[in-house]
Amino acid sequence: MSKSPNIFIPALAGTAGILGVAFAVTSRDYGADKIRALETRMGQVEAQASAASEKASVEAQRAAELELKIAEVQAAASQRVASLTAPAPAVEGTYGIGRPALDEEVAAWDVDVLPDGRGLPAGGGDVFTGEEVFAEKCASCHGDFAEGVDNWPVLAGGFDTLADEDPVKTVGSYWPYLSTAWDYIHRSMPFGEAGTLTADETYAIVAYILYSNDLVDDNFELTRENFADFNMYNMDGFTVDDRPEQEYAAWRAEPCMENCKDEVQVTMRSVFLVDTPPEGGSDSVMNPASIDGLPSFTAAGPSFIPEAAPKPAPVVQKAAVTQPAAPDLMEAGEKVFKKCKACHQVGEGAKNRSGPHLNGLIGRTMGSVDGFAYSSVFAAALDEGRIWDEAALAEFLAKPKTYMKGTKMSFSGLKKDEDLAAITAYLKSYGE
């Protein structure tokens, strides 16, 4: 027996109601969660907006501060520029510091001397006075005749040696202007007492140095009036440096890179360029040796270079026995020899100093004293066998630089015939 479907309708209606209530409840819970999420998000956005606003406010304040600082710096710079370019403010009276320099004080600082004599003070000095002042204040370093002592510089001699391997640069041989000597001596000498020389003393010393270089006579007087008229020996030996105009442009040109060798090889060693002469030394001339059979080398040097043959001993001729000179002539000769004692010795125990000893001079071969380093001109005289006799000695002592051109001896010479006779007699009395 079947049942009618109507009996299920109430049950279905109840289920539907329950489902509806459940859906409503579920929908309500979802909406609440959604609202809470939105509220949370809204709070976060508001917090971010507040932080951004606060940050923007801080940055705006910092920008305003920087703009104010820039304006202050610009204003200070403008004031500084204005203070540097504006004329000094007018001040009534003085600050009470210092005083105007006196003419004498300005003159004391204005000490430079020009080649034409400008800047020289009034005054003058002669050779005779200069010799005395030089002996007192300068000779301890530069020698009695400006020949130099130990490592102190020589002031005289050396003419025509500037092209030599060992040139002698002195006031006479090298300096182009007399003003250089005057100015330097007046300001810097004597050593340890700079600035103590009077103008007259400086004139006298310079005159004596000129005399020692055989550039003036013994009666010469140097003054401000004749200073510019004196021309130094080497005044034309200097030229204006024109290399920037004449040479620098050529040095900066592009190098030539045409017609170059394809290969570069060593064909000669420097040792083959040296030819050792029998007497020693070396000449820079081409040696005909080739690279074939290259000699061995040791710590002693190339084996093919022979030892130099010993230099032949010079033939020394003894002085002839002469009659003793008159006592008065000997006394005069001893007095004249005082001018030579700074460099030469005679008598028992005489030794070489800045000049060779003079024992046995008359009849001796020039340049033959053992152990003394002669200049090249005396070495040449030795090779020629030249002898010191009375005539040669007198001629030499009268004009040393003329008789023996290139000598390093700075003595200017004896001017009086009686002095030459006296010194000759005196030296003749000292044998070997």
UniProtKB/TrEMBL annotation:
UniProt keyword annotation of Iron-sulfur present: no
One function term, GO molecular function aspect: electron transfer activity
Organism domain of life: Bacteria
InterPro entries: Cyt_c-like_dom, Cyt_c-like_dom_sf, Cyt_c_1A/1B
Cytochrome c domain sequence ranges: 125-213, 328-431
Keyword Transport assigned: yes
Transmembrane segments: none
Keywords: Electron transport, Heme, Iron, Metal-binding, Transport
PANTHER family from the UniProt entry: CYTOCHROME C
Protein name (record): Cytochrome c domain-containing protein
Gene source species: Roseobacter cerasinus
Origin organism lineage: Bacteria, Pseudomonadati, Pseudomonadota, Alphaproteobacteria, Rhodobacterales
